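Quick start: read one record
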Amino acid sequence: MQLQFVGCGDAFGSGGRSNTCFHVTGDHVNFLIDCGASSLPALKRQGIIRDGIDLILITHFHGDHFGGLPFLLLDAQFARRTRPLVVAGPEGIEARLAQVMEALFENSSKTKQRFELSVVALRPEEKRSFGAVEVTPYPVVHGESGGPFLAYRVEAGGRVIAYSADTEWTETLIPAARDADLFIAEAYYYDRIVKNHLSLTTLEAHLAEIRPKRLVLTHMSDDMLGRLDTLAYAAASDGMIVEL
């Protein structure tokens, strides 16, 4: 199984990076975690076949994590996709998806797809199975608008992938990522403490409790990108592949 960082940037494209979108593939799995506004061109640029994707997990409704869905769904429609697709995310996702579809492409939410589209709301700390993928969401803290906000613990192919999503430090990150084979964690700043985002030094203070087997930092601001050569941890880059 492998995870490819289709995009690992923040909302403002710091460092010229694409918005958040991770592609996970294995013998029996093919899914995305988040689908930020720039995800469709990034997927095409990296030669990823969208028709094979069975599941898209959305962490929250900010545009750099959610705004690519209308483009991806319309591309699937015009490409005559027939394979079923599941989009799962926080409660309210069905209404939010219709709203963003209408905002970007009027009447698109009312168009009947050529393929079966299922939109599924996930409840915090309730495990759900999607074929060979088991997903447990955990609530995180990232402001008031754009939520609810979820981190994910994903079990597939005998491996565990955890993703913090965008959040300030919250204790729920410990069960979400404990002993994960791969923990993808936001590190927006190095040591600056701000509401709704996670700094690397704050994360470091809890790594002994989390004990991830592998840590990769993502969603970095210019502050972090300027320190890449000095970091003690792996940092994501667009196109980077992690074998699991």
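The radius of gyration is 17 Å.
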